[in-house]
Amino acid sequence: MKRFFLFLIFPFCIKGQFAPAAGQPGSTAIKKDSSIIVNWANACEITRGYQDISNTGLGLTTVGENTSAIGPADGNQVVSLGDGGQAILNFPQAIRNGPGFDFCVFENSFDPGFLELAFVEVSSDGINYTRFPATCNVQNTLQIGPFDTSSDPTKINNLAGKYVAHYGVPFDLQELAGSIGLDLENITHVKLIDVVGCIQPQYARYDKNNNIINDLWSTPFPSSGFDLDAVGVIHQKPVGLNENIEQNKVKMFYNSSDKNIVLSLNEVLAGEIQVISLTGAICKREELDSLNQSIALSDLSDGIYLLKINTANFSITRKILVY
Fold first, then answer.
1. What is this structure's pTM?
2. 54/193 Cα distance (integer angstroms)
3. 232 and 297 share one domain
4. Whole-number Cα distances in Å, 129 to 133, 139, 180, 192, 207
5. pLDDT, tens digit, for every residue of 92-144?
6. Do 179 and 255 lie in a common domain?
7. Cis omega before residue 298 (within 30°)?
C-alpha cells in the first residue's frame, strides 16, 4: 500500500507544487479591480539595472519612470528594472499583517509562460529588509530565451511576476513572522529586485534552496528585466482609529451543521457585508441592517474566505473557515 501511494504522488511533484496561472483552478492571482485591494503605492524609487549584465556597454534600461509604478495597475504604464535593478515603494498607510494575503505585485506579462521575475523584500524602517523565501523549480540546465514562453508558474513561489498583466502575485506577511527587526504591523517599504534570470554562475541569482533562477535572458533592450506595473495593498494600518475597539463591535458565531455565520453587533449600523474568496472574488454580498444577522454559506465550497464588514465609520475584515 505504501508503494502504491508513493507512485501516485510522484507525478504530482514533477508537474508542479504551487498555484497555477491566472484563471486556472487553485490560482492565487488577484485581479487589478478586486475589491480586496484597498490602496496602492504612492511613491517609488528606482535603481536601474543593465539591459544586459554580460554586456554593460549597452547601458541601463530606459523604459518608464518611477511614477509609472504609482497608483492602480493598468498593464501599460510600467517601469523596466533591467538585470538586477530594483524598486522601493512606499504607501499612504503602512501595510499590516492581516488574514491571508497582505499585498500584491503586478507585472505586464502577455503570456502565462512568459515570465520576468523579481525577489520581494519588505521593511518597517526603510533600512533593514527581509526577503520572502522564494522557490523556483523551473529547469536551469537550458537557458530560457528572451522570447520563450516555456516557464511554468506552478514551479514558482514567492516571486513577483509569475502572473500575466492585470493579475497580481499576492504575498502573506505571516510567512515572515519572527524575522528580527521587522514589524509585521507596520510595513512601510516594499522592495522588488530583478532576478536577472541568467543561468551562468557569474550572473546567476538563487532561490531559498540554492537553485539558479532561470527566466527570460538575455533581453538586451531598453525594456529589459522585470516590468513593474503596480503594488496593491490588501491590509493597511488604520489611521485615527483604535482597531481593537472596532473589532469588538462585531462578534461572529459559526454553525457548521447548516453552514451559517451569525453576526452579533452592539449597535445597529448601516453597511454592507461581503464574503470574499482569497483570490478576491466577491462570493456573497448582503446589507448590514440588524443587531443579529445570519448569513447562509451553504452554497460556498469548503475553504477559507474573508468576511468584510463596511460601515460609514469603519471597516473590519476577518478570516472565516467554511466546512
1. 0.74
2. 18
3. no
4. 13, 29, 10, 11, 17
5. 899 999 999 999 999 999 999 999 999 999 999 999 999 999 999 999 999 99
6. no
7. no
Dihedral (CA of 306, 235, 134, 160) sign: positive
Among candidates 318, 234, 280, which has minimal Cα distance to 34?
A: 280
pLDDT of residue 16: 66
Distances (CA, A) of 253 to 92, 259, 310: 34, 11, 18
**Which CATH number characterizes residue 297's domain?**
2.60.40.3080
Provide the sign of the torsion angle of the four alpha carbons 156, 159, 161, 163, taken in this order.
positive
Q: What's the longest Cα–Cα distance across the chain?
A: 68
Residues 301 and 193 in one domain: no
Domains: count for the chain: 2
Please state, in angstroms and as integers, the Cα–Cα distance from residue 287 to each residue in 193, 243, 294, following that order. Answer: 43, 22, 11
pLDDT for the residue 239: 60
Q: Please check whether residue 79 is in contact with residue 63, taking contact to mean a CB–CB distance below 8 angstroms.
A: yes
Residues 53, 72: Cα–Cα separation, whole Å? 30
| Alpha-carbon dihedral sign for residues 252, 253, 254, 259 | negative
Using 50, 70 and 90 to split pLDDT, how confident is the model at 303?
Answer: confident
More confident: 268 or 5? 268
Strongest mean pLDDT among 1-5, 125-129, 271-275: 125-129
Which residues, at least 6 apart from 1, have a Cβ–Cβ distance to it below 8 Å? none
Predicted confidence (pLDDT) per residue in 205-218, tens digit: 999 999 999 999 99
Dihedral pair phi/psi, residue 173, rounded to 5°: -60, -25
Evaluate whether residue 135 is within a structural domain.
yes
Who wins on pLDDT, 19 or 265?
19
For the chain, give the mean pLDDT.
89
Same domain, 109 and 187: yes
Is 10 part of a structural domain of the chain? no
In a domain, 296, yes or no: yes
Q: Which domain holds residue 103?
A: 16-237
Residue 144 DSSP code:
P
Residue 215, domain member (yes or no): yes
Whether residue 191 is found in the same domain as residue 277: no
